[in-house]
Amino acid sequence: MDLVALLAIQVLYAIASLALISVGLAIIFGMMRVINLAHGEFLMLGAYAAIVATSHGINIWISMLVIAPIVVGVIGIIVERAIIRFLYGRMIDTMLATWGLSLFLVGLTTAIFGNTTVGISAPLGSFEIGTYRVSTYTLFVIAVAIAVLAAIFAVLRWTRLGLIARGTMQNANMAAALGVDPPKVYAVTFGIGAALTGLAGAVLAPVSGVFPTIGVAYVAKSFITVIGGGAAILSGTVTASALFGTVNQIATFVTTPVFGEVALLATAIILIRLLPQGITGRFFRRGL
Amino acid sequence: MKLNRRTFLQSTAATAATGMFGSTAWAEDPIGVAGIHDLSGGLDIYGKPMVDALTLAVEEANAAGGLLGRQIKLINYDPQSNMQLYTQFSQQAALKDKVAVVHGGITSASREVIRPVLDKFKTLYFYNTQYEGGVCDRGQFDTGVTPAQTVEKLVPHAMKKWGKKVYVVAADYNYGQITSQWVKKYVTENGGEVPSIDFFPLDVTNFGPTISKIQAAKPDFVWSALVGGAHISFYRQWAAAGMRKSIPMASTTFAVGNEHIVLSPEECDGMLICYNYFQDLKNPVNEAFVTSFHKRFGADYPNITELAMGTYQGFRLWAEAVKKAGSIDRMKVIEALETGISIDAPSGKVTIDPPTHHCVLDVHIAEVSNKKLKVLEDFAQQKPADTAAVCNLIKNPDDNQQYVIKI
Q1: Whole-prediction pTM value?
Q2: Residue A184 structural domain
Q3: Are A54 and A63 spatial neighbours (Cβ–Cβ below 8 Å)?
Q4: How many CB atoms lie within 10 A of CB A144?
Q5: Which residues of chain A does B44 touch, with a Cβ-Cβ cutoff of 8 Å?
Q6: CA within 20 to 30 Å of A144's CA: A37, B121, B161, B386, which one?
């Protein structure tokens, strides 16, 4: 029984971390149709921002939850202004540009921080379920994921900013005719996507350790989740994360981590074969 | 520039020609020594100290007048934790640089990439990393420790201290696969049991389900043969789950990449390890070595690792053999090494074991304690008994394979 509870927490954690690493990409790719191959590096930058801030004596919670998203958000806006905005609608070109950006960021962080693994210890300690022990930080990651998703829902659904963003993504010309400035909306949206990615990187830094090429470990999973989820950003990310996280974690527990990864990828292939438009291409179509 | 087939052929032919003539060796030219170690990517935690140690060894040799009256030129390659680049760079070292010896390879996977290339192009190869044992190849020398020298000592030590049930977690390639079998063999021989061996690809960072599984299996201790930067998160997540105090850990890889400095004492104190070299070894050769190492690379150098020392000793053994042979010719140096050449190294006496091309050397069990490695027990002059059981290059000089333990 304790083991079931423990496993449930692990599954929730897998779903939460998938949702966290994907949601920024879902905004950038899902809303703006920009294939951001530097997504993994945005995660990496968030992690480094948190670690650098913490090692300079700033409270770990502030560095993870405030400084990391702000830093990466600003970097995201700069990237959008300097590179991405010239390439809207040219998918292959954005892929190339962001891939180059990804290599550049890896090289730059290696030059600055060296190529060794750094990290911070996970705060909060652990708690017991029967005879088992679980890191309390696991629950914190789950809580952050829920908070982020709830915030995105609230902004998109109930604020003017969300309405304008959705409108601009659906039809930029019409939005412009109604007095919206699409370039500004694009820049802000890209920045928000980057900020959320930085937040995810920072929150996951204490559990995973950080080195300049860590983005590679995340970028494939993020893309699979976003594409598996389909057009609707929020319901797509949540459903795809839930599916892939559960499959991955249970397969890992029953067999080995290798088969856990295989099971995740196999599920993704079958899913895309059956639902080429992603989960939200057929279900929850009216979701956000 | 527009590139058609003709200009392309012309330019490549020109490049190839300069390459060919440019590297023609003159007698007074320096002796080329290549190092191939990962300085970036997930394995860089191991490669950096190795390159530093090799650099120091070459500089020391040059300061002492070089070898055979010639200076030594060190050519470093960074394969970026990418196996394809190992092939490319070992070919480049053998064919373009025409080096006398290649020191390099970190993971066993990379060694098995380099070995056939250098065998083919008749270039001497030194693999200086502690590894799973069993490589039997006359063109290669292995200066690192193998399971019969370390695991065999550490298993009984840890079992006496903690208990008989051992859960093994290992990296998923030949090193982890074979080493975990050795762990199982020694645990069983000492009357214990191994309920499970879990393997992880090198980029896995989420160990949550495994930690739950280990808790469900309730072992007396965990044995880690995890490798690389990503796997450090296992120790973090293990400590974050509060497991460090209830289930202790022993390892054949921990601290080799200075994990004990990256992690906080709360995350790894008390872990047991067993290697050939620790920076705090008390002997005059080592004290002099540490002083000159710190002088060269700064007194704040985090820690001189097992692999760094393996590389340093590997170069010294090769240099000793060159002096003895009076030549850098591959076969003459191999024959000189096969006389059982021996050096007084910082880790103690290191001797080439002629039938296996491995080393006889001292090993020590140590405990991680507040970012330091505290030596607990010493074992003098350990033979590579695992490889010796299957490999005899004096009797079968043409043998060329890696023997794998059968259980």
Answers
A1: 0.78
A2: 11-124+131-215
A3: yes
A4: 21
A5: 115-116, 211
A6: A37
